[in-house]
Amino acid sequence: MIQLKNFQQDVVDKLLEFIAPEYGINNLTIKAPTGAGKTIMLLSWIDEYIRSTGDNIAFVWFTPGAGELEEQSQDKANSFSSIKAQSVDDALLNGFERGSATFINYERVVGKKSKAMLTDSERDNLVDKIEKAFQEDRHFIVIIDEAHRNDTNKAREIISRFKASKTVRVSATIDDPNTPDIMEFYEVLEESVIASGLITKAVVVNEEIDISLDEDEFAILFDAAEKKRQQIVASYIDNGVTGINPLVLVQLPDESTPDLSLRIEKYIQETMNKTYEDGKLGIWLSEQKRNVIDVNKLDNKVEYLIIKQAIATGWDAPRAKILVKIRENMGEQFTVQTLGRIRRMPQPWIGHYNVDVLDNAYLYTFDTDFLNGVFAQGAAVAPTPLLNLKDRAKSLKLTSERVINYDEVLNEKMILNNIYEGLKKRFNFTDDLEENYLILKNQGYTLGNEIKTTFKQGRFDVLANADRLQDRERYVKANYQDNRIDLLHAFHELDRVIHLPVSKVEAMLKRFFLWRGYSLVTSILKLDANEWTAFILNNWRALREEFRKIDVAQAIQGSLDLDNIQKNDFTIPLTERYTYNPKLPDTKMVQTNAYQEYTTASIAVRPSIVERLMERWLEEHAEIVDFVYKNGDKGPKYFSLVYSTNGGVSHFYPDFIIQMKNGDIYIIETKGGEDVKGRDKNIDSYAPAKYEALKKYAATYDIKWAFVRDMNEELFYLNSGEWVDEMVADKWQPIIKLFKSIEEENRMSEN
């Protein structure tokens, strides 16, 4: 089974929730960056739904015409055992069977007259197959891939034939329709996809272009692109990455003249000595295709592939790392899919290599309109050039912690036992299962064989007064089979804090609460299947909170006594690349940063307000600060500590390492604080465990430290005693007190 990333599992959970018949909305729009793995997410959802329910359902998946995307999707679907994947031609023969997923290229049903398009008799046959499915009480769920591209009357007409009970639209560029009563909008944030390692950390624009080289744009762009390609090849070798031949995409304007492609072909073949005959040059245009078979495979010989925008949507070639965007006469508008072709990491199971040249994608172009679109849509956040470390920061040395063997983690049996012992201690459970039943009932847990639901009742005159409606409770009989989708949703919510796959979560809950005719060592209740179903659905939120507390408690304990740690010398990397806002006016050099040429434009794009406030505060107090290093968040080249959870061990990367002018070194981790209404903005449930890990490290190595949070745009710190969630005044102190002694020393020396 494919192991989904956290954000991908969130999408699957959302789709499972959405597909339930009682869910009030029948249209869902999902916006996900190119490279997020939307095909795998959708297939995982379809597979889980078919596998877990007895629903009489068929899925129909519409894909855009270019790039043979429907074949790519169908091939991937064949790896899921529960899905009967088929093409529209298969559907014409076999119909829309129960549990099937039919992949239909728009060009087959709504395109211009072509050999690929369905004949009139085939269209009639397709309609007959749809009607036959209706006669067998089958209902359809329709998926519209790259929905923005084929929103035409013809497309809507064929889609309407399926009378879909639910419709899912997916795209990298679709906007929120702002019609929540009709269509729900769900967005996958690009930051979460980058953090998962599926796409590059950034897109670097026109790096190391030598404008003195030649007046010929081709020479300038292709010289820079080839140098970068050779750097990537060398870096793969240096880092032991084999079987990947980096690809340069050369994109022509869609409306370009034939002469332009001829000129580019001539330049690449005659000047760069990469030809069709030696297999290093390929071309994929509607009127001309050469060396395109298996061009997307990682070790394919083609080094340069000439394309137009049309291939860009949906086409998948993870080895593509560089895009040369050619202009002709007038500029061309940027589309997100264009850069999506070069943003995929070639080995998603590995993710980022934590090597700068390999973890970025590269764009070379003089097309001003195109570049303006890139920055306007945030598709390239303009990474800085490589910044050099200042001399005064080169002597810093710390001890970094890493896990020796990441696979040596707590096994499933230990996880289960830890949770059982935690529940037993929390509720004072005994071996008497009837007594345990009363204990939970007295603690407010809902028991019995009915599921409690709520509905609104009352009257309102205008929509603004709808909140005056009263909540009423309604109870319905639970059924183990009929409530499978609801149970799956609950299991997915629980697996986030248990660190086990869904199937293991279900097995654990059955061991605890389901009666099998005999008692287990870990039995807590003796419920039948329907009572167990009702118990889980009524109480999963309360159980999740209990499991989370147990997990955090294990994390704190584990952080105090953890073996299997490797200790390495850490020095600040000699070069680093940060992102920045190229449009920001009045940027200034940050004198306290450890790197030369680091500016306030990089501080401005930090996603966390507490990080921005911290950097600015330190710059405002430059008289006491020697240098500030903003640590990375993944990989062995950055400073890391180790902490444990009930599910195993994890690294964490403190945000800042600060050396003061008196020689003191501070390690600072920032977390969200409280908003103006006193609500907690810290979303990291493992903050207490990380706090203990940093406290232990600081005591071991005699380093100063603190956790810093924000409230009302002011900074407060905690570095003594136990972690405290609430930012109470006697615990969380103003940041100035953390450095007060240094300020006093500084004033005395001035006097």
From TrEMBL:
Keywords for this protein: ATP-binding, Helicase, Hydrolase, Nucleotide-binding
Q: InterPro entries, per this entry?
A: Helicase/UvrB_N, P-loop_NTPase
Q: Which GO terms describe its molecular function?
A: ATP binding; DNA binding; helicase activity; hydrolase activity
Pfam families per record: ResIII (PF04851)
Q: Which domain of life is it from?
A: Bacteria
Look up keyword ATP-binding and say if it applies: yes
Q: Residues in domain Helicase/UvrB N-terminal?
A: 2-175
Q: What is this protein's record name?
A: Helicase
Provenance organism: Listeria monocytogenes
